[in-house]
Amino acid sequence: MTGRTESADVVAEACRGPLRIWTLNMPDRRNPISDDAVIERFVQLTDRANSDIDTRVVVLTGAGPVFSAGGNIKDMAQRTGLFGRSPSELRDGYRSGIQRLARAVYGCEVPIVAAVNGPAIGAGCDLAMMCDVRVAASNAYFAGSFVELGLVPGDGGAYFLPRVIGFARATQMLLTGEKVDATTALDWGMVSEVVAPEGLLACAEAIAATIAMHPPRAVRLTKHLLRESRRQDLDSLLELSASLQALAHTTEDHRAALAALRAEQRPHFTGR
User: pTM for this structure?
Assistant: First the structure.
């Protein structure tokens, strides 16, 4: 499996041990994510990752100079496909289209590290915010520029962005449409690291590899707790934490970790 890439797909997947590299693979169109084929591919990939305990971490990036330009501007301008429908059909199209992608990516049980290799615009910016960790190339920038097209973030961006950078800064980004460069993104906590473009993927893979060293079920449960912490009160989250901790205590990986710690050895985790 190592090194295998399905390059014909709109989102290519490469397998490197416990890591999966997902690459938006439409550089000639600036990697739009609103097309049905892209949405179906993300649903397929996340379903596969969720069901495979050997998939420990995902790195998501874009082919070419752009991470993702978001929606398909050409189709919008020509009013073709989804954008040629009536208002009620458009509403249903968003719910059964790009919003399925948002649910799939945000609901992925496996941690996703976004390697933002260039501009992340509109829904492309939102896609990065759906991920768990973000690193950016020094030439990358982020823009929630829906208002510039007379639109709103129909993919859920008004949910994701404030939870990453805070309500005030998200409001500024979404109401002005202004670009946020990589240095500012780092200062705002939008990304964890900014590196030279040539070192971006290596940086993202290093973070992913560190995550992948740990027991995979504990990692998935921790991600679940972090997600739930955004919408539950303290009492509810404490109850959930106790329940998930009880499950974690009974795993073989927990016992392997304790034994390795006492023996001062490096443990091997199986996901059991």
Answer: 0.91
C-alpha–C-alpha distance, residues 164 and 57, integer Å: 20
8 Å CB contact between 133 and 207:
yes
Q: Are 222 and 244 in contact (CB under 8 A)?
A: no
Residues 106, 130 contacting (CB under 8 angstroms): yes
- pLDDT 10s digit of each residue in the chain, 272 long? 344 444 458 999 999 999 999 999 999 999 999 999 999 999 999 999 999 999 999 999 999 999 999 987 777 777 877 777 888 888 888 898 899 999 999 999 999 999 999 999 999 999 999 999 999 999 999 999 999 999 999 999 999 999 999 999 999 999 999 999 999 999 999 999 999 999 999 999 999 999 999 999 999 999 999 999 999 999 999 999 999 999 999 998 888 888 877 887 788 888 78
Does residue 127 contact residue 68 with C-beta atoms inside 8 Å?
Answer: yes
| Rg for the chain, CA atoms, rounded | 19
User: Phi-psi bin for 187: left (phi > 0), alpha (psi -120 to 50), beta?
Assistant: alpha
Tell how far CA 29 is from the center of its chain: 20
**Tokens matching residue 231:** 């919408």
The neighbour count for residue 77, using CB atoms within 10 Å, is: 10
Token output for 249: 């205590």
Q: What six digits make up the tokens of 89?
A: 């059909």
What is the C-alpha separation between 26 and 28, in angstroms, rounded? Answer: 6
**How far are the Cα atoms of 56, 224, 227, 229 from residue 235, in angstroms, in the given order?**
30, 16, 15, 11
CB 164 within 8 A of CB 191: no
For the record, the structure tokens of 4 come out as: 């295998």
- The first and second tokens of residue 105, run together, are 């990516």
